[in-house]
Design brief:
heterodimer, A: 90 residues, mainly alpha, two-stranded antiparallel ribbon, B: 390 residues, alpha/beta, Leucine-rich repeat, LRR (right-handed beta-alpha superhelix), 13 helices, 30% helix, elongated
């Protein structure tokens, strides 16, 4: 049962925005503290992308090729647990 | 993957994106409807001819029905590079499938005058409706497309390198706030718009709009510095809210000054544009070869009372004598009323002996009584100590 305070969007949203802006790593840790925080934080982290690399890196069979990223086989569409994000942003 | 992709609202693709084509193909095959980011709202794509750019043939991955803002920059980094035929065909196809509900569209595709790109962009413009608020392109559009743009009810920002068509139906630009006229487009558009402002429309049409609230940015009014045509100046003068005026010449050597305005030209400009808020005159240079002097500052100060930012340069070879004259009650000192607080002189040189510093500072205070700082690259400007001493 999450603490009632994390259900108050007006309180949580400014914290998320600030974390995403100043420290994405801290934002990921914040997302992993509680299921109620996961969706709003990760969606905020993913809101703007400056490459397709992050998306490829969350796939199960991505590989580094010729200075870029590739996928070894057809993507299954299977989703990853939020914990995977730690690797993707590291 | 779809979960993460559904969170993406904005995507900036650089020309050196490191995703392989094979991966993109697989992503494409595994994306529902072939769209990678179903809720993408803005796309900024810098594409280059180089092998590392995401091929334009994958454009469909990014065309979501939620797209509101699109910037597509396909200008080659090397001027002699040409877009390969296959990529050009993909670019044309991409433009043709862009949603017409876009609010902002920037298609920076190179100054093409004819060809499929021109037709595709013109066609897209003609299909765009009242949603469009901003449009920029380097491609010459068809006359029909220009007509359509001038009639769009919510178009706020527009930039063009293209001269206006011979006739433009009125009213034009009902909501325009910022018009950016590049290079040779400046003079014809200013004349056309000014004629509407003066109520002397062409072809017997009645003016139904004014541009008094528009902010007109002339980014390359190079001919002004050469000739300063009085007719053009009088046209500009009709725009009481012209807040930004860049005047520079085509400069091939950054180290040498190609700024050809004289004191009387700046005086005419300042007198014609008394409501200027921001003014950038010329490109600051290393050399002391321009023709304007301290007198140009005096003209600006006496006419442009609302000025907030001024970036200019002038010849400082006679600055000590000129300032001495001003301080001792020289002509024009009583007219200076501008409240400018900060003057930007960039790389402009200054050669003043230490004992003359105070005279120069006092001269600047006469011209701009509220001046508290001069922003310059040369350390000698800092030694003037324009700021009040504590």
């Amino acid at each position: 049962m999450p603490h009632p305070i994390v259900e108050i969007d007006e309180l949580v949203r400014p914290v998320i925005n600030e974390l995403v802006k100043t420290s994405p790593r801290a934002a990921v840790s914040f997302a992993l503290t509680c299921r109620s925080l996961e969706e709003p934080t990760l969606s905020s982290l993913w809101k703007q992308q400056h490459s397709l690399t992050d998306l490829v890196r969350v796939l199960p069979n991505h590989t580094r090729v010729e200075g870029g990223y590739g996928i070894e086989s057809t993507v299954s569409g299977r989703e990853f647990p939020a914990g995977r994000i730690r690797y993707q942003l590291s | 993957m779809h979960r993460y992709a559904s969170w993406v609202r904005g995507l900036h693709l650089f020309h050196d994106e490191t995703i392989t084509s094979g991966s993109l193909s697989r992503l494409s095959r595994n994306s529902p409807g072939g769209i990678l980011f179903p809720k993408l709202e803005w796309l900024h794509w810098d594409w280059d001819v180089g092998e590392r750019s995401v091929p334009l043939t994958f454009f469909r991955l990014f065309i979501s029905s939620h797209l509101k803002r699109v910037t597509l920059n396909t200008r080659p980094s090397q001027s002699d590079a040409h877009i390969p035929w296959r990529q050009l065909a993909a670019l044309v196809q991409l433009i043709s499938v862009l949603p017409t509900s876009l609010e902002s569209l920037s298609l920076l595709c190179g100054p093409e005058k004819d060809g499929p790109l021109r037709d595709a962009i013109s066609s897209l413009v003609c299909r765009c409706g009242p949603f469009l608020r901003r449009f920029d392109t380097c491609v010459h559009l068809s006359e029909a497309a220009i007509h359509h743009l001038t009639q769009l009810p919510n178009l706020r920002h527009w930039s063009t390198i293209q001269c206006p068509p011979r006739t433009v139906p009125l009213p034009i630009f009902p909501s325009l706030e910022n018009l950016r006229l590049e290079k040779q487009a400046a003079a014809p558009w200013v004349h056309l718009l000014a004629s509407h402002e003066r109520g002397t429309p062409r072809n017997g049409l009645t003016p139904a709009t004014t541009l008094t609230d528009a902010r007109v940015t002339l980014t390359s009014l190079y001919f002004v510095s050469a000739t300063l045509a009085s007719s053009l100046l009088s046209s500009i003068a009709k725009f009481r809210d012209l807040v930004t005026l860049y005047v520079w010449t085509d400069c091939s050597d950054v180290g040498s000054c190609t700024f050809r305005l004289k004191d009387e030209n700046v005086g005419d400009l300042a007198a014609s544009l008394p409501r200027l808020v921001n003014l950038q005159l010329g490109r600051p240079c290393h050399s002391n070869s321009c023709h304007t002097t301290v007198t140009s500052l005096l003209s600006i100060s006496s006419h442009c009372l609302d000025l907030i930012t001024l970036e200019t340069h002038f010849n400082t070879q006679t600055i000590v004598g000129d300032m001495q004259c001003l301080v001792n009650g020289g002509a024009g000192r009583d007219k200076a009323k501008c409240k400018l607080e900060s003057l930007v002189v960039g790389k402009m040189p200054l050669e003043v002996r230490g004992e003359d510093n105070e005279t120069v500072v006092m001269g600047f205070k006469v011209i701009f009584p509220c001046l508290t700082g001069i922003l310059a690259h040369d350390i000698r400007w800092c030694e003037l100590r324009v700021q009040p001493r504590s």
